[in-house]
Amino acid sequence: MKHKKWYIAVSVILILLIVAALTHRLWLEAMARFLIVKDELSQADVIVILGGGGPERVRHGVKLYQSGYGARIIVTGAEWKLPGLTITWPQLAMREAVSLGVPEDAIIPEERPTSTYEDAKYVKEDMLDRNFKSAIITSSPPHMRRARMIFRKVFEDRDDISLRFSPIEDSEFQVHKWWTRERELIDVVNEYCKLVLYFFKYII
Fold first, then answer.
1. Structure confidence by residue, pLDDT tens digits, 91-105
2. Domain chopping of the chain, boundaries
3. Are 147 and 137 in contact (CB under 8 A)?
4. Is the CA virtual torsion 193, 198, 201, 204 positive or negative?
5. What's the pLDDT tens digit per position in 106-151?
6. Residue 158 and residue 138: Cα distance in Å, rounded?
7. pLDDT tens-place string over residues 18-50
């Protein structure tokens, strides 16, 4: 009887492993798609480009600006310290945006945040100071679900402010094969870890 139970257990495990192997592309792709959230966009007071992630975040934010979705841009991010150089992400982002045709006085640098939670906290302060009532938040595709979760939490007491979320279009992030690329594999694993951490730290 014990041998029969052992045989059944091993057989079930083997079947599950075989099914997982045969369908790995489906569930791995589903893992990535879960992280990506996208709203239908309408004109807003400001476009918020979250710090980090490289120039493609800036390019997408500028594209939204030039398409008429917002008259101002907030760029967030912390200080970078490199050998012989100290610079903030907003400074780099401003340079990129200006080079793409955005007037410098249309850009609001927010240099205090060191995390996604602080992004939301300080963007809220900036919006209230300027009486902005709507914003489009943009970031890298796998960052969007966590960004939306945190921004909605921070802004939950402001029914008068509307938030929309727009992941980068034509991103380098490949939904269909992220698990084959080291940087994207790290990004996805990190996002799932941070989703759990942020949920318990800030949501519940």
1. 999 999 999 999 999
2. 33-203
3. yes
4. negative
5. 999 999 999 999 999 999 999 999 999 999 999 999 999 999 999 9
6. 20
7. 555 555 677 889 999 999 999 999 999 999 999
The count of C-alpha atoms lying within 13 angstroms of the C-alpha of 197, restricted to the half-sphere facing its C-beta, is 9
Structure tokens at 80: 């970078």
Q: Structure tokens of 82?
A: 């490199």
Q: Which residues pair with 88 in a beta bridge?
A: 79
Q: Kindly state which CATH superfamily the domain 33-203 is placed in.
A: HUPs (3.40.50.620)
CA-wise closest residue to 171 among 84, 83, 85, 58: 58
pTM, entire model: 0.87
Residue 87 pLDDT: 83
Q: Which residues make beta-bridge pairs with 44?
A: 70
Interior angle at CA 141, CA 140 and CA 145, nearest 5: 105
Beta strands at 85-88 and 79-82: parallel, antiparallel or unpaired: antiparallel
Three-state SS sequence of 15-81: HHHHHHHHCHHHHHHHHHHHHCCCCCCCCEEEEEECCCCCHHHHHHHHHHHHCCCEEEEEEECCEEE
> Which amino acid is residue 199, in one-letter code?
F
Closest to 58 (Cα-Cα) out of 27, 98, 5: 98
